Records
---
Amino acid sequence: MIGQTFELQGKKIWVCGDRGMVGSALVRRLATERCEIITAPRSALDLLDAEAVDKFVQKASPDLILLAAAKVGGILANNSFPADFFQQNLDIQNNVIKSAFKNKVSKLVFLGSSCIYPKLAPQPIREDALLTGPLEPTNEWYAIAKIAGIRQCEAYRRQFKCDFISCMPTNLYGPNDNFDLETSHVLAALIAKAHKVKSQRLDSLEVWGTGTPLREFMHVDDCADAIVFLAKNYSDALHINVGSGEEVSIADLARLVCEVVGISDRLRFDSSKPDGSPRKLMDSTRLSSMGWSPRISLNDGLRAFYDWYASCR
Ligand code: GDP
């Protein structure tokens, strides 16, 4: 159902995962809505502890939960720690979704990612491609946990009429991204590596894989805006793709990063690292037909991202 407005003014909103890249962007975005934002530092609330989560939700009594907490990581981390990505994501989402139901939270937004879709899904990938084929093996365990979360929201909606919705953002980047090269996603890694090339006057930029995979990128501030838009305006069982439509090969992305950082675009490909999915461009027609579209181009977003990164050094 579209157009069923969930008013945010005067509401208590728990941004679950507020220290992460998406959660912190949601906190920034919600500052302009006249709502009360609830956050819980990791030291005060362990999301893997079902009882603690339940007590927290009971006491805080939010009207809306934006479930942005997750165990996330790039291609290498996902591939190396399958049990962590599988179990921690299942536990976090299970604890939060169950407690939202138990404590009669009016609305919940669950977040997944474009890796939930089959590796060879027809491109651009529509929402109905879910569960139509085998997954990309490098992030299969994370994907299966996220698919379970989508279905969990759908099951509670169907059986108990809970207003739980799901949205699937594309590859994101922005402030508070993870820059640890072992666990980060590609854009944060390339920014950190390019900055090092510049500051240490190295002669080339290392790029994992062949550089041929295609990826779609969105600035996290656009993503937060889309999530708030969906929280306000969308209420239905189908998960919604949140993409920018801006697709680029990893090699071209690396060249763009070189330009933004101000280094020569001499690239060195490390073919011992995996490429992952050949392409994962999402079809975000459903979201755009509801009246939302992104505002930050890859070029502008990358410049802002690098400025932010450099200002933190
Ligand atoms: P994915 O979208 O799940 O595959 O996750 P990533 O963002 O980690 O990787 C996207 C693509 O970028 C893959 O083809 C990687 O091989 C490639 N890539 C190139 N250089 C890097 C790097 O330094 N770090 C990461 N994480 N990926 C890189």
---
Amino acid sequence: MNTRMLIDGTLVKGAGLLDVINPATGKSFAQAERADETQLEDAVAAAKAAQPAWAGLGYEQRGALLAKLADALDAIKDDLTRLLTSEQGKPLPQAMGEVMGGIYQLRHFAARRIEPQVLREDEATRIVEHRTPLGVVAAVTPWNFPFLMITQKIGPALITGNTVVAKPAPTTPLCALAIAGAAADILPAGVLNVIVDDNDLGGKLTGHPDIAKVTFTGSTDTGRKVSAAGADTLKRITLELGGNDAAIVLDDVSPAEVAPKLFGGATVNAGQVCLAVKRVYAPSAIYDELCEELARLANEAVVDDGDKQGTQIGPIQNRMQFEKLLGYLESAQADGTVIAGGKPLDREGYFIAPTIVRDIADDAPLVREEQFGPILPVLRYDDIDDAIARANDSEYGLGGTVWAGDVERGAQVAMKVDSGTVWVNKHLDIGFDIPFGGSKQSGIGREGGDEGLHAFTQPHIVNIALA
Ligand code: NAD
């Protein structure tokens, strides 16, 4: 698989190399080419030079090239799946789901069009809204979905006529470089540029004067920096940031039926999902039984290398996140009662035993902060309005779930949860045609849906006197 960066249509070596660690072993298994500031400048300049001609191609030709890229990735999907598991850690079936989702996403955006809208037409006037591209887009992504996050950004940016400089997270550069390898033979030079850094070029890229828009997914702390970096040149910015999603369980559900759904939602991708279940609120009437069911599932879960058949939960993606989680395990022991897990696995790699914590206070760090790992606090409530207020008492507002026997009652509770998406009796049902994003400090703007696509364009109003 390609390990070179894509700048101005050429796969290039970098100023340096970056070791890529397999989190299941903690050892380097590949090296990626890494950029310096000069190569960042080259990438932005190439994207700027390529943009007018790319926009000039129009939707049909751009869509055809994006579909061709999707086909090229489809042809190597098995290799991409293994690569994704090696660099990110998730079990192979989840990796295959991510790769197929990313390819489907490119096909979805390849087929999207924004038609001009006649806003007003009478004898004297015709006013038409065209949506024009913004220019060069910087796409900055995190390490939890290294394939899907890239396609999620380049698909809508490119179909609408922008060019892109993409920068993956330093611990997972290989999927982005694999996409670059496929794109090098398909897209015109400069349309897509992919550079790699060691956490040192994100600020330069997102603050660069020739970048018109930043589409960023990552932590809320870095999102603030991206926002500040864009202020000087008033960039358009979409921020998909952290979450601390609450699952609110109502008193008319069966604990045995709902527990596997909660556990799955908290531990998919080892809990490293912005929309993972990060805290559970359960009524006193079923609290003990639900805790017991969750603890049983945690004790039975198969935690192992993602490329082993039968693995449910893989390693934590990187050492820094693994060490952060060790801190949350300490806090869980101090602030609550650990009823399953509670420690790292005694083996190489970055593995944490899935952990269930009960009787923990609302102000414990594990409850207030985004843990981003398989450690789940379960909180008790007696009054549903109190549970909703506690769920909403957070700087975050990305997602959330409500679990109800009476679906209409569940929908009423969902209306009161202050988050961008709230699911009732399901989880992680995300469609590219549905706007997705956060309220409060979980983000600004939306991806997906018409809103997400329009965010890569600006209105261009043509107002004509007919008489
Ligand atoms: P992070 O913020 O540390 O890094 C994200 C990206 O930003 C990386 O590519 C990094 O190199 C880059 N970066 C670092 N410093 C920068 C700077 N000053 N300016 C610009 N870019 C910079 O996030 P992470 O640890 O890689 O990812 C985990 C976080 O991402 C979690 O908080 C998670 O909730 C969030 N996330 C959100 C969504 C969403 O859609 N809302 C999806 C996935 C992950």
